[in-house]
Amino acid sequence: MVNLMSGDSFHPPVRTLMGPGPSDMNPRVLAAMGRPIIGHLDPAFVGMMDQMKVLLQYAFQTENELTLPVSAPGSAGMETCFVNLVEPGDKVVVCINGVFGQRMKENVERCGATPVVVEDDWGQPVDAQKLDSTLAAHPDARLVAFVHAETSTGACSDVKTLTQVAHAHDCLVIVDSVTGLGGSELRVDDWGVDAIYSGTQKCLSCTPGLSPVSFGPRAVERIQSRKHKVQSWFLDLNLIMGYWGSGGGKRAYHHTAPINALYALHEALVLLHEEGLENAWARHRHHHEALKAGLEAMGLALLVEEPHRLPQLNAVKVPEGVDEAAVRTRLLQRYGLEIGAGLGPLAGRIWRIGLMGFACNAKNVRLCLHALESVLTEMGAPVERGAALPAAERIYGVTA
């Protein structure tokens, strides 16, 4: 039993978060969470909501009116897309190349629809030709669902091409970009994406617990023409839009919004706008290149092939004979550094090293390379000592 003394408070240790999320938060975002709370229907708060929609439209590169943050984590953003767009009896093609494609399939089944699976190896992107062949064999499919940035493997799939294939077969698309938004190129309107969801705790470097979503005109039409009531009251967009309206007009009460978390998201989106979206994409790529150079100089290999790697989520193969969990434990205890473990069939076989948002910087790259080399050397792993940091510095243009 936990012994709680009167007046005890929780004070978390200081960590450097370089796992698959959450990521370190910018001090401005943390400070925003401490601003005075006001009512969720206060005119000032409603004005902030309108600003946030515009900022989210910028982040997604869309003019979709139905763009907003769901008051729950990325998994709820996923459910929002599925419960609003999938009806009982529908056939949905689900592309699975990792954990989160599997979760999409689970959502399809819980909506009373029939999933048809296009499967690729973990660590590979979704194969557009496989998708095309599957859709040709199932002309009654209504939707295609796939993951842009697969957090369990670090693989990036070609959203533009996959969307084109789906549209050629008269299907709408649902895209998971929980780890993609703000870290990798994403152009919702230019690529024709119908529905997309993300999370705030990855490359936006905001608090967990919110899920930005965006729905295009074809998706809105599908929602409005449903034959069945949306199975979730809380996630029914027909109701939510009464609260997340536009133009500062009267709002209908739906739920008490997580006000201070929304302050944080607003600040995180302001920071993204200040940096510039394409600059943010380039920053993630630059620090990934430095990390990759150091890891490879050390003798470690990445799981995903070069053209398909996410810069913000690096899946690193564990050397033969190394206890990957023991390495993570030492990194946390000795350096306050968190990296992630593998999931599913990759459990015990990879580490997942995140370079997300505010945590994507040269200081963290250097810390990670130094700490990982020290721990692996201490454990007798076959790594090249003294090679990692100089290799990273060559990317940074500094003589080591």
UniProtKB/TrEMBL annotation:
Keyword field: Aminotransferase, Pyridoxal phosphate, Transferase
Residues of the signal peptide: none
**Source organism's superkingdom?**
Bacteria
Where does the record place the modification N6-(pyridoxal phosphate)lysine?
Answer: 202
Cofactor(s) essential for the protein: pyridoxal 5'-phosphate
- Residues in domain Aminotransferase class V? 49-342
Q: Which GO terms describe its molecular function?
A: alanine-glyoxylate transaminase activity; L-serine-pyruvate transaminase activity
Residues that bind substrate, according to the entry? Answer: 352
Record-linked InterPro entries:
Aminotrans_V_dom, Aminotrans_V_PyrdxlP_BS, PyrdxlP-dep_Trfase, PyrdxlP-dep_Trfase_major, PyrdxlP-dep_Trfase_small, SP_NH2Trfase/AEP_transaminase
GO biological process, any: glycine biosynthetic process, by transamination of glyoxylate
- What Pfam families is this protein classified in? Aminotran_5
Q: Which family does it belong to?
A: Belongs to the class-V pyridoxal-phosphate-dependent aminotransferase family.
Descriptive protein name: Alanine-glyoxylate aminotransferase apoenzyme
